[in-house]
Design a protein that fits this description.
Largest sheet: 6 strands, antiparallel
Number of strands: 6
Shape: globular
Number of domains: 1
Radius of gyration: 12 Å
Distance between the termini: 10 Å
Mean pLDDT: 90
Order of helices and strands: EEEEEE
């Protein structure tokens, strides 16, 4: 993952129905997370437009409960 990448950040490993999409603006190896400019949120496979935050923060792959390579929680999509 690099600054500028567009990522899909799943809420939980193995759950592909709930996620956020954003553009990575910073990565912290010290804290093991990244910050992304919000693009879209999906809840139960439907776009959630209730609230639109400017940014979201999530743990880097491998820094969250149950992270595995077989079921990535963070996917680079562009």
């Amino acid at each position: 993952m690099n600054v500028g990448d567009i990522v899909k950040s799943y809420d939980f490993p193995g759950n592909t129905e709930c996620y956020m999409i954003g553009k990575v603006v910073s990565i912290s190896t010290l804290y093991g997370d990244f910050r992304a400019q919000f693009i879209k949120r999906v809840w139960l496979n439907k776009e959630d437009k209730k609230s639109t935050p400017d940014f979201f923060t999530a743990p880097l792959q491998g820094n969250s409960f149950m992270d595995t390579d077989a079921s990535p929680r963070i996917v680079i999509i562009a």
